[in-house]
Each structure stands twice: as C-alpha cells, then as structure tokens.
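<instruction>
Derive structure tokens from the sequence
<data>
Labelled lines for chain and fold:
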Amino acid sequence: MDEPMFTQPLMYKQIKKQKGVLQTFAEKLIAEGVVTTQHYEEEVARYDKICEDAYAHSKDEKILHIKHWLDSPWPGLSRILKGRATMVSQRECDWALGEYMAFGSLLKKGIHVRLSGQDVERGTFSHRHHVLHDQNVDKRICIPMNYISPDQAPYTVCNSSLSEYGVLGFELGFAMASPNALVLWEAQFGDFHNTAQCILDQFISSGQAKWVRQNGIVLLLPHGMEGMVGTKNHDLPHSVFIKAS
C-alpha cells in the first residue's frame, strides 16, 4: 500500500532505471574473480526455490490470522478514482469517500478545513489521495477539493514533519486562532502520537481547567481500532476520543 510513485513519481522513475544492488554487487564480485557466474546463478536459483516452495506450502494453510486483505496489488490511482465514481453512482460509501464528502460539505458552507500529519495527503492506507501528483512533471499537483464551488472555503492539506509535538502544538494554536475552522491532526501510528504526548498532557486534556481555554482541534488515529497502536494511546483524554470518533 505504501507506493512512493503516488507522491514522488519522477524520483522513483529514476530509481527504477538503476540496476539492483544484488546485480551490481554480483557483477563486481564476478569481475574481481571472487565468484563465478555459474556460482552466482546457482545461489540465486537456490534462493528462488526456497521462496517458491514456501509459496506453494502457503496454499495448504487454511487459517489466516489477518483482519484486512487487499484483493489485488496496487492498481494505480486511476482505478481508485474510478472506484469512487462507481460508488457515487451506486449511492455507496467507504471510509475515504465518506471523509471526502464530509470535508466537501463543510467547504461548500464556507468552513475552512485544515488537515496535517504524516502522509495525510495520500492517507496512511493510501486511501485518501486528496493531493494528486503529475506523474511526469515534478511538483505539479492538484487538490480537487479546492475546486468544488466558486465561493467555497479553502481546503488545506499538508504532510508534516516527524516533529510531532511541534506540529500538534502549531495546529493547536491554529485552532485557537480560528475557532470556526475544522482543524485536524492525524497521527499515522501510535508511536507518532506518543511523541506528541506532552502537548496532550500539558495543553489539550487540561486546556479548560488549567488554561481556561476551549479548543476544537480534532485528533485522528486511524490505526487505533485495529491494535496497531503505541504504548501510550490509552492516555488519550476521553474528550479527544469523542472528537476523533
């Protein structure tokens, strides 16, 4: 799911043109006489057989302890967008489309929506894709949500750095200064949230009692419902869980 071509297309086109590390190293060793071509090919074939045998054996397994499956490899962005169009025509909705429509309805009403966090532009599960990247022109992007209506409010979505407490502190201040905006910060995994714990403890959970301030910031933890969280997510204040849900 973590496909870098979504957001760094030109860089990874260059990377795909490079020889693999195994091939480069093998050519060096063969040229230096350390190994022969035959020995290298036999080792590769031996390893391939190990993988193929394991794959064949996996078909005999009847119980899979996995909650979520993708039924096919990464299909490309066009298929994802066509899938959304199909859902709209069939009046169906998944998580990503539901979020899209919720944000869009607020924007049409003139409410600024601001979302930041790790990989929020494409989404933790490569499900969101709120920023589309040109596959041939570097840094040429489109944010479709900013083209819903001529008199809509702006939609701001940006990937943030891994200084989580700094980013969450900034977003908390932004929400304080813009009480009529929907300001969201998304922690990709529990360990990202852990690094922002000091902001939660010092300012958010105690905001009204200690600082006599109310704040409408919304915290999102997409992995929180499937066990893929860090050690301190149980410390999230109850009010934040309500907002996130």
About this structure: The radius of gyration is 23 Å. The first strand starts at residue 113 and ends at 117.
